[in-house]
Amino acid sequence: MVLRGAARRPPFDTAPWDDDPDWEWHSAAGDDPAALRALHDDAVAASDRALDAALAGPEGLATLSVREDRHGGGRFSVRWILVHLVEEYARHNGHADLLREALDGLVGE
User: Fold this and answer.
1) 3-state DSSP call for residue 86?
2) What span, in angstroms and rounded, lies between the C-alpha atoms of 52 and 49?
């Protein structure tokens, strides 16, 4: 969405955002785990294709996003997007470590 300006992908394109702004936090509670893994795998493959296309261009990691920052800060480079994703994954992995420690006292490596 940010990099290429594409529309939201299913199921986010038809989610009831106006009725439930936090839909993504509880919508999958009753979904089949295999279907969720397939949805995730499809999203990862689409992201890989978008990244490959951006990196194949003449600007490479300096390629700018189509969409701008919501706060008027300009467009994002592919490099910035990738660093941001690493930061997000690291933060959520840290959350998982905290949950694990709360369950049984063991800590991550």
Assistant:
1) helix
2) 5
pLDDT in tens, 63-94: 999 888 888 889 999 999 999 999 988 888 88
Q: Specify which residues 64 forms β-bridges with.
A: 77
Which residues does 90 contact at the CB level (< 8 Å), separation at least 6? none
Q: Which two tokens stand for residue 45?
A: 């493959």
Task: In whole angstroms, give the CA distance from residue 65 to residue 71.
Answer: 15
For CA atoms 70, 73, 74, 77, give the dihedral sign: negative
Nearest to 54 by CA among 86, 89, 79, 84: 79
The whole-model pTM stands at: 0.71
- Listed in sequence order, the DSSP H helices in 1-109 are 23-26, 33-56, 78-104
